[in-house]
Amino acid sequence: MDTHWKAEQSSFLQKQIERQKKNALFVILFVVCCLNDALFLDRASGKAIEPRRSKVEFPGPYTRDPAALFSFFEITDYKIFPAPMNKSNYHDGRQPVRYKKVSLTRKVGDHNEKTKFDIALVDWLNGQLYRTENDYRNQMAAFNKSYRIPDTKQKAWSNESYLREVIEFLRRGHSLLDPECRCVHTYDEKRAKELGISLPRFRMGDAEDKESFRDGKCTLSRVRKECTSQEISNEICVGDLHSIVDPEGRALFDTLRNNKFISCELSESGEYVWSYKAMLELSNRQNLLEVILNTPCGMKEPSENDAYNGVEGDVKSLKESHEIYAIQNAESRNTLLFPRHKHLEIQVDDDIKKLWEENEPRNQLTQEEQEHQLKQEGLIPTKQEKAQKLTGVKRKATVTRRKSAKKMHQHAHLLLPKS
What we know:
Elements: H1 2-38, E1 40-41, E2 48-49, E3 70-75, E4 97-104, E5 116-122, E6 126-130, H2 133-137, E7 143-146, H3 159-172, H4 189-195, E8 227-228, H5 229-236, H6 252-257, E9 262-266, E10 272-276, H7 285-293, E11 299-300, H8 311-320, E12 324-328, E13 335-339, H9 350-359, H10 367-376, H11 393-410, H12 412-415
Antiparallel strand pairs: 1-2, 3-4, 4-5, 5-6, 6-7, 8-10, 9-10, 11-13, 12-13
InterPro entries: TFIIE-bsu
GO cellular component, one term: transcription factor TFIIE complex
Keywords: Membrane, Transmembrane, Transmembrane helix
């Protein structure tokens, strides 16, 4: 009895040791998974990429809206609000906007709230405040630096909102903040003021804004290119995208790099490089034609989101030059592009074409019209009756056999001989 008890105790201790080893292995695997989630490898160099610490003085979101800096009474150079990043008849969009008789709505540097200045110059990043007209003429600014001041009252945008703006920026190929940009955006008035851009000329439900420069006739380059983290931070109006965390604790950096439409790589200089990742690896018209010619079963007509900016115009050009065949599905309305191998085509005689046109049915009959003509000829369509369902006898027998087998297993111990 004592020997049997010692054997059981030894077996129990051995199982405890094995269980502790498994738990330790699980902890190690968990730590490794956490590190893999925090680090990811660059495709080109194979180096580990991890979010860096911000070196920006104010890394959080900020606004380019002059009203967030001061209240004003007169705008001398530009009467459209918001100001700094727009071209119009009154302003070229690049020089600072000049305001007169302003009062601070927040503390700026050493100047407290409600401090008054005769002149304020504001561009998309910096602000200059002059107490008097003489100070302005003598270029003696009381404040002259970036006004990216943390604003606790500012609305915290979600990572999904920033993600949409970054994807549109990378896909567009140029910045909405460029004074020459005339692209139409979908931002509301509050977000447009924070970005410092004007609203589109035509908005659903609103009258035409004739002062707006954004009519959709943009002539800037739409060639997609790689962008740095700083360029993206400037575009979405944050100090440093690596430091942005939403209210749920998710880092904006992780949200961007994990999106399927965004590519993030680490350059040789140590900077993060971002670019738009299209589903189709197409770059120009010739490349598109080669892909279609090598796809005998046809391919769906690509859009700019799937390929590159301008692909729709190249597809139209290929159709007009008869270099490809384009067939539209009558039900789904999707267009398929097929290759056209002109060296395999044969010339058909004119008499065969004429014979085909003479025998081609002019009027396509609907199903109801076809049935009506068949009935007039004495041909009555027969309805195929549905096959009768089988009775449940066989299924009941199967269920009965299962029950009997289960019953036998339950009483199997009664049939086994005793050891």
